[in-house]
Amino acid sequence: MHEFELIKNYFQKLSKKSPSALNLNDDVFFDKKNRLAVSVDTYVEGNHFIDFQKPELVIKKIIRSSISDLICKGVLPKYYFVSGSGNKKSFSKSNLSKISKSLNREQNRYNILLGGGDTVFSNKLSFTITSIGFSKDIIYRNKGKVNDDIYVSGNLGDSYLGLLVLQKKIKLNNILNKYFTTQYFMPDIKLELANELKNFANTSIDISDGLLADLDKLINNQKLSYKLNLKNIPISNNLKKVLKLKNLSKINFISRGDDYQVLFTASKVKAGIIKRISSRLGVKITKIGIIQNKPLKSLIIDHNNAVITLKNKGYLHKF
Questions:
Q1: Do the bridges between strand 224-229 and strand 299-301 make them parallel or antiparallel, or are there none, so unpaired?
Q2: What is the pLDDT of residues 11-42, one digit of tens each?
Q3: Are 227 and 181 found together in one domain?
Q4: Of 82, 111, 134, which one is at a domain's C-terminal end?
Q5: Which one of 195, 214, 221, 224 is most buried, by most CB atoms within 10 A?
Q6: Residue 317, in any domain of the structure
């Protein structure tokens, strides 16, 4: 059973009397009356991060991925709560000191404040983060429209290559190793977009499970499909260099998750304002495709206009 079947079969009915729960089909809880947006995420060692050898970096990844849920909704994060389960080894004085210093840096970087949390003993290390922000409105899922352009911020694929480096599945020089592992641990989330997205986005999501998996989620309750152009999907110069050096395929890197970039759709008339805001903020925003009617299948086309078959569409939460 995957995540959405579990929610639909066992928990969706419990939220029917709570409109703010958004039918449990969005990234956040949003209480419009009180202007309150809340996101909750859990991270487990061996699943969401490899190990805890670098606690100061793991906690950065966790915090950034958590507040990105609010950012993609057009909400600035304000408070976060941390609950952790671990033992004496994982929560040693040295590790706790490193975690505390990293959290302080993240607070200063993103103007967020620790609100509270909880700790429990367990031999399985995990963290649960609750992020809170305040807004008059948000950008919802399932609000895409036929002929909307599809956009993404930043670059995709660097984090996945960083994971491969950490897993010792690919060998690079020290400079590239450092670049890609940094992208894995410290995703370049686009806080600057939070105040701008509502000016042009019809629907949005952050890319956590992978470009295609999250694009499917973005339109999952609509009779819509998508058409993406592989050549337009943005990747870094460093990733281009490695793909050429190792004779690897771009298609196998653009939808493997942990990018935490903003994926959104917008009407074609918004192209000008998107370009101007991208330039003003210095944030890379790239048009990568278009939303179509459902009778047309979702697809990716290459530079020869041939359809690409992708076996791995991203991370799937199975139970």
A1: parallel
A2: 999 999 999 999 999 999 999 999 999 999 99
A3: yes
A4: 134
A5: 214
A6: no
